[in-house]
User: Fold these one by one.
Assistant:
Number 1:
Amino acid sequence: MKEVSKGFPENFLWGGATAANQLEGGFDEDGKGLSCADMIAHVPKEQRKGGHAMEISSERIEQILAGEIDERFPKRYGVDFYHRYKEDIALFAEMGFKVFRLSIHWSRIFPNGYDEQPNEAGLQFYDNVFDELAKYGIEPLVTLSHYETPLGLTLKYNGWASREVIGHYVKYAETVFKRYKNKVKYWLTFNEINVMLFSPYTGGGILIDKVENKLETTYQALHHQFVASAMVTKLAHEIIPGSQVGCMLARMETYPYSCNPEDIRLAQFENQINLFFTDVHARGKYPNYMARYFAENNVELKFEPGDEEILLAHPVDFISFSYYMTVTKSVDATAEQTAGNLAGGVKNPYLEASDWGWEIDPIGLRVTLNKFWDRYQKPLFIVENGLGAYDKVEEDGSIHDSYRIDYLSKHIAQMKEAIKDGVDLIGFTSWGPIDLVSMSTSEMSKRYGFIYVDLDDEGNGTLARSKKDSFEWYKKVIATNGEQL
Ligand code: BG6
């Protein structure tokens, strides 16, 4: 029998995670084309419907392209990593990062998504970034697609709704695999692939007002992404010997609100809908429970000959996921609802919530890790977790973010418990080690970083970087391999 582990393994990959569209800026520099993220404006809090500003209509896209919309698009500017990557990577190195998760902005490489030739200046930028990381011995973990579908693919094909996009994605992946084969070993195919269910535009560059059956189109687009993911997993293994390819899920463990069997069944159903994605990626086939769901919800998927074979032959090497919250569901329609959780649900009376209403549940992370391990027995990688919070800069420039330290230390403690439970956890990249533009709200004031960036919601600021209290804290966590929290 296996011995009980004492804590984090020696080669554990500690680091931080980012996405090009929230970090880089330089949206129109050196030949980059527009991506879907470049079209998302900042919506002031008072004007937001629900918590999120992620959907967009085809009419609005036309208006933006015609220059008729006078609004700010923060994801075009990020926090200027494009020009400051050396300074930022030096700070990551100072914290002792072993790994840095970043995405390649697809439209930097293929400006329209369907171009014949890649853009050399875009390829060179990531060469520079990977070389800088290598200087410090930091391993890159690269997401191929993090809500960054080239806008050209949306305009020409309505994004991933069309099967045509598979070929363009595979060509893009092959280009970067060949270019970076000596520099990048860890790859993720699609960020939070399930987010397409909440926002087809964000996850798949799909203008949903152009389709008739929203649910069917969404699952068809997801099928295209599954096939594309399997195809590039195969390619990565062929082009880069020893490469490791992972899928990425926004995992939301659903709890039943009570022991009423109806609540239990509801939670089970919600968990199946969420775990469907890792079931396909890890096991290489659609789970039986989805057949009934599709049949009862007017969803008929088109599989091409060979799809089933490629999914089965090329499952992922590891499972990665983001973890921010758990969800609680009840069949009781009168139960009090939560304000902020992405997947809705009722208020869990045992949990506190962040300033954005996301319910904070460190023990839920241990539960999540154990469930994943029980289900798949594949290595696990937490590639996002963290607290989006308001930070206050004191007169002397210091930032005392004890709430962030508290949040992260509780989650890391539960990771350690899960490792002792026998879970094979290979790494942890906290979300936004440097403050960046929020994905869901495009604001700056929702900060996750150990490194503060002087930039506000209106785009004012010097962009200067400074260390928060959590900077030294995380450095110590890494130096002690998770022993001192
Ligand atoms: C994940 C995304 O959903 O959550 C990131 O992969 C995102 O892109 C992160 O930034 C946190 O969400 P938000 O909306 O607080 O930025």
Note: Residues 214-239 form the longest helix (26 residues).
Number 2:
Amino acid sequence: MANRMLRIDPTDHVFILTGAGVSAESGIPTFRGAGGLWRNYRIEEVASPYAWERDPGLVWEFYSMRRRVAGDAKPNPAHFVLAKLEEAIGDRLFLCTQNVDGLHERAGSRRVIHMHGELFKSRCDRCSRSPFADEKTYEPPAEIPLCECGGRIRPHICWFGEMPFEMEKIFTALEKCSMFVAIGTSGVVEPAASFVAHVRGRALTAYVGPEEPANRSAFDECYMGAAGELLPKLFVVEQRTRRAGG
Ligand code: OAD
């Protein structure tokens, strides 16, 4: 298993989907599986439009805590390998993350699709003002921050029941990819969990993580282990297309 590698040919387009497991070795707890954080909170109770209507103070308390945890964390080898891969193959890499922590960028990745939003951005829940950089924490008894229009400022996060961001770009990249690699994601949250089924049969599909994901059967290959340990040895970037029999 340790010697298996994913060879990227010059014609390959690689779609990488990352999940919470990629940041686990940076000390950011995952949502599911052993050691999940956000254990004291039921994620559905703090990450939905319903939660925002019912108790915006609790929602900001949760995201303020996550801003603090992510702000203190540092990228790990898995993030750095993916940044290096972008350097090596440029826009033939499409890096799509469900993570909101910003660690891919802090490792040097330049083109990252944040399908679930970004922790260090906020937006108005009423007007069309663009999401803006925001590192502040808003914890009770702090007031819920307000927009100039009178709307409330909320985290720029895709909550349960909301449409993930950048779906058009994502499906274009899925159509184009010849290799699909999911890393550190449990394969239960849609629509990301179904991306692999969408490309299966026309792209090589691989999973990297310590446990089999719920959608394991859709992957051709499964590399079992921690992303920070496996990724530094996983990818081989070929400079020339390998010929059959060559
Ligand atoms: P999960 O918490 O559901 O799954 C994390 C996965 O990472 C598990 O399958 C673990 O086995 C794996 N894992 C743990 N340590 C790892 C390591 N060192 N290396 C590699 N993998 C490791 O996280 P996601 O699948 O990302 O959505 O969750 C998807 C979405 O659910 C999140 O984006 C979030 C949550 O609700 C929103 O907030 C909208």
Note: Residues 11 and 29 are 36 Å apart (CA to CA).
